[in-house]
Amino acid sequence: MNRYPLWKNILIGLILLWGVIYTLPNFYGEVPAVQVSSAKATLRLDHAGASGQIEEALRGAGIAHTGLFTDANSLRFRFGSSEDQLRARDVIERSLNPDAQDPSYVVALNLLSASPNWLTSIHALPMYLGLDLRGGVHFLLQVDMPGALTKRLDSTAGDLRTLMRDRSVRHSGISREGNAIHLRFRDVEQRNAARSAIQNNTGDLQLVDRDDGPGDLRLIATLTAQAQQTMRDFAIRQNISTLHNRINELGVAEPVIQQQGADRIVVQLPGVQDVAKAKDILGRTATLEVRLVDDTPGALEAALAGNPPFGTEIYSDRDGTPLLVRRQVVLTGDRLVDAQPGFDGQTNEPAVHLSLDSAGSRIFRDVTRENVGKRMAILLIEKGKGEVVTAPVIRTEIGGGRVQISGRMTTTEANDVALLLRAGALAAPMEIIEERTVGPSLGADNIAKGFNSTLWGFIAIAVFMTVYYTLFGLVSSIALAANLMLLIALLSLLQATLTLPGIAAMALTLGMAIDANVLINERIREELRNGATPQAAIHAGYDRAFDTILDANITNLIAGIALLVFGSGPVRGFAVVHCLGILTSMFSAIMVSRMLINLIYGRQRKIAKLHLGQAPN
Amino acid sequence: MEFFRQRNDIPFMRHALKFNAVSTITFLLAVFFIVVRGLNFSVEFTGGTLVEVGYSEPPRLETVRHALATGGYPDAQAQNFGSGEILIRLPNREGLDTAQVSQHVLGMLQSLEGSEPQLRRVEFVGPQIGKELASDGAMALLLVVFGIIVYLALRFEWRFAVSTIVANLHDVVIILGFFAFFQWEFSLPVLAAVLAVLGYSVNESVIVFDRVRETFRKKRNMNTAQIIDHAITAMISRTVITHGSTLMMVLSMLIFGGEVLHYFALALTIGIIFGVYSSIFVASPMAMWLGTSREHFVKPKKEKQDEAVV
């Protein structure tokens, strides 16, 4: 009766084998690697092309890589030594980025698992270490949604003014009050005309009438819930993509940029120690400036010769062509509400559509009226350096705040310009509300401390169990080791982030998991004491202990799940390991130990004595 | 080897009243300290900035405090932390550019004479996050308590569920009492430890009650107190061995885990010790006072009656 059927033994064996395989990558350590990713949001990494080019460059330089790994956004090459890694980085950098001033790719140093390729190919990867173990910076950023909403309403108020003028609706004032726009009218006809004009023009506004006495009729416009939602989503997405672009500059190997909740963004930069620079880059707002181009014949030549005319300076566009630009700023990026690529309505040429807010529209109308035929430069100023994004010719006076830039552009260029213009300003301001920085020495310390606690705790328990329960204790210790291995395998497979509290949870789970085996062993002793035969005692011991073990683990699991639901940061890391550990412990404490006991005792017809360490009756 | 060969049941319940008195006093003391001294919440809950720097030769704390006070942070606290590390805490305050505080402080420390400080860690928590964490922690505690009551009520019966929860909340309050009395830092990992202990001690009570239920069904000639004594005596060996093992692991964390795991392991140590105590001396007597009896566990057998034929 104490035999598992063959299939059950094989199944348990296979699960353990799976555990061994998926635990393996954690033992190999890491080797130097070079990671290549795109430096520009507009440039998609061409895997085949880039890897071919890199391999050729490496062959040319006589450097052999020991493996190429690709994922959606990057290429990674593994190298035998850090010396090769450094040389390879330079070679790749030169080959991919001929112009060091304007790199198309980010070439960064990284560490990759040294596990053999066959393991990587079955997705057996080492556990993903959290920032507290590997060092790095974690930021939680809060997007200022009320700010974004106010900005949007201000620009909508401007749009409405223009609309009223275009449709010749007489109003006595349009203003934003709180989260609503108030349109004031003297009579009902005008208000009705305004309402139908707005309703024909946009579906984003909800309109309500309010009468504040004769001669003060109001139409109150608020953004519909859907429009607000769209705006929020847009703001978050926009900010995330802007952050991506900026963080790429840092050359971080594996940055994490994720939305958290409705209005928060998590940024994790493993390995980054220069917090000041990271913060600078995150908090930096690139500014857009619109200025007029000085096309006076001869002025550019004079300026290039080192003698710019008064009130002008030289900027280059993205192709490096110099341009003489007036110092006076016509407009800044604050006035820009949106920039989208599209097509010219008449010629069907690719174009970029800009929308300006009301103040911007007025300035823009005045400037364009006075400067028809001249050129206007849009500059992106970042890190104190300016670059001309585009410099179109003003064809006609532009009112209404809707600007279209077109002509001599490809669709890709239009996309590119629109993105750059949008990246110029974050959609909504952000604030750092949480920061954790862990130095590299502390990270390594934490790993060592966590590892040592688990190791010594495990040894103490295993020694004690073996002394106290002899053979059964040894089996319990083996089951406990299997538990640890399966837990690590599961964490590696899920690529859950392992943190120091996670390691603590691992240790604690082991300490608690031994309970199941103690229960079983004690129950077997008790059965023996009550006069059961050894075989019957084993059977009854496992059987009767099972209910108790299940009960006990369910209460533990309730606590674990509550932590998982409400925990954040370190607590969540703890909870994940705790919950998984409870599950693996159920399997190993009951199935694995039973299989071993069955293999030892199950085949003997008559057992003189069980090696359970009990005193003779 | 065998530590416990109990031929006769230990009369735990005879002394139940004394132990209950002791528990009540400890519990009240814990509540007293929590109320009077309060918990020393970490920056995660209060919001603020924490900077840990490591030195080969740490400067005197007075120097650091003075430098911080003159540098615009009179409310900064500096303390030694481990060997050669200094921990600086700064509360959030209006008008402080929180994002730049850590840089500023680090710059200040670097300008001091003596060995160069190494940045170990920085934690900055904005005020809104702190509030959220505190309320999430409270929610997690409620969810655990509620989940366990429901589970135990379904699995056993309400008297056991209530006694278990009272016993284990007693443990939680005592852990918090220790943290309040010694003003140990109460951080997120400590909260995790408290909740883990809650699950773990409930498990202890469950195991005892499981045995009580079994004994009720088997032994018909004992009264409730005798049955509880019998069940606890039968499980005492397992209780001590299991908790001893868990305690070994936790002590290993306390010894090898360093400062970061220190309070986490400490909370677990206290929790495990009181968990054993409370399931034997709090939960069981309470179940007894609440009037647990055989009828709650032994389903009355329906005697088959032949229906009378009219």
From TrEMBL, chain A:
<dbReference type="GO" id="GO:0015450">
    <property type="term" value="F:protein-transporting ATPase activity"/>
</dbReference>
<keyword id="KW-1003">Cell membrane</keyword>
<dbReference type="InterPro" id="IPR005791">
    <property type="entry name" value="SecD"/>
</dbReference>
<dbReference type="InterPro" id="IPR048634">
    <property type="entry name" value="SecD_SecF_C"/>
</dbReference>
<dbReference type="InterPro" id="IPR048631">
    <property type="entry name" value="SecD_1st"/>
</dbReference>
<dbReference type="InterPro" id="IPR054384">
    <property type="entry name" value="SecDF_P1_head"/>
</dbReference>
<keyword id="KW-0653">Protein transport</keyword>
<dbReference type="InterPro" id="IPR055344">
    <property type="entry name" value="SecD_SecF_C_bact"/>
</dbReference>
<dbReference type="Pfam" id="PF07549">
    <property type="entry name" value="Sec_GG"/>
</dbReference>
<feature type="domain" description="SecDF P1 head subdomain">
    <location>
        <begin position="313"/>
        <end position="428"/>
    </location>
</feature>
<dbReference type="GO" id="GO:0043952">
    <property type="term" value="P:protein transport by the Sec complex"/>
</dbReference>
<feature type="transmembrane region" description="Helical">
    <location>
        <begin position="454"/>
        <end position="471"/>
    </location>
</feature>
<dbReference type="GO" id="GO:0065002">
    <property type="term" value="P:intracellular protein transmembrane transport"/>
</dbReference>
<dbReference type="InterPro" id="IPR027398">
    <property type="entry name" value="SecD-TM"/>
</dbReference>
<dbReference type="InterPro" id="IPR022646">
    <property type="entry name" value="SecD/SecF_CS"/>
</dbReference>
<protein>
    <recommendedName>
        <fullName>Protein translocase subunit SecD</fullName>
    </recommendedName>
</protein>
<dbReference type="Pfam" id="PF21760">
    <property type="entry name" value="SecD_1st"/>
</dbReference>
<dbReference type="GO" id="GO:0006605">
    <property type="term" value="P:protein targeting"/>
</dbReference>
<feature type="domain" description="SecD export protein N-terminal TM">
    <location>
        <begin position="1"/>
        <end position="109"/>
    </location>
</feature>
<feature type="domain" description="Protein export membrane protein SecD/SecF C-terminal">
    <location>
        <begin position="430"/>
        <end position="599"/>
    </location>
</feature>
<keyword id="KW-0811">Translocation</keyword>
<keyword id="KW-1133">Transmembrane helix</keyword>
Automatic annotation (TrEMBL), chain B:
<feature type="transmembrane region" description="Helical">
    <location>
        <begin position="230"/>
        <end position="257"/>
    </location>
</feature>
<keyword id="KW-0813">Transport</keyword>
<feature type="transmembrane region" description="Helical">
    <location>
        <begin position="161"/>
        <end position="182"/>
    </location>
</feature>
<feature type="domain" description="Protein export membrane protein SecD/SecF C-terminal">
    <location>
        <begin position="114"/>
        <end position="291"/>
    </location>
</feature>
<keyword id="KW-0812">Transmembrane</keyword>
<protein>
    <recommendedName>
        <fullName>Protein-export membrane protein SecF</fullName>
    </recommendedName>
</protein>
<dbReference type="InterPro" id="IPR055344">
    <property type="entry name" value="SecD_SecF_C_bact"/>
</dbReference>
<comment type="similarity">
    <text>Belongs to the SecD/SecF family. SecF subfamily.</text>
</comment>
<dbReference type="GO" id="GO:0005886">
    <property type="term" value="C:plasma membrane"/>
</dbReference>
<dbReference type="GO" id="GO:0065002">
    <property type="term" value="P:intracellular protein transmembrane transport"/>
</dbReference>
<feature type="transmembrane region" description="Helical">
    <location>
        <begin position="137"/>
        <end position="154"/>
    </location>
</feature>
<dbReference type="Pfam" id="PF07549">
    <property type="entry name" value="Sec_GG"/>
</dbReference>
<keyword id="KW-1003">Cell membrane</keyword>
<dbReference type="GO" id="GO:0015450">
    <property type="term" value="F:protein-transporting ATPase activity"/>
</dbReference>
<keyword id="KW-1133">Transmembrane helix</keyword>
<dbReference type="GO" id="GO:0006605">
    <property type="term" value="P:protein targeting"/>
</dbReference>
<dbReference type="InterPro" id="IPR022646">
    <property type="entry name" value="SecD/SecF_CS"/>
</dbReference>
<dbReference type="InterPro" id="IPR022645">
    <property type="entry name" value="SecD/SecF_bac"/>
</dbReference>
<feature type="transmembrane region" description="Helical">
    <location>
        <begin position="263"/>
        <end position="291"/>
    </location>
</feature>
<dbReference type="GO" id="GO:0043952">
    <property type="term" value="P:protein transport by the Sec complex"/>
</dbReference>
<comment type="subunit">
    <text>Forms a complex with SecD. Part of the essential Sec protein translocation apparatus which comprises SecA, SecYEG and auxiliary proteins SecDF-YajC and YidC.</text>
</comment>
<comment type="function">
    <text>Part of the Sec protein translocase complex. Interacts with the SecYEG preprotein conducting channel. SecDF uses the proton motive force (PMF) to complete protein translocation after the ATP-dependent function of SecA.</text>
</comment>
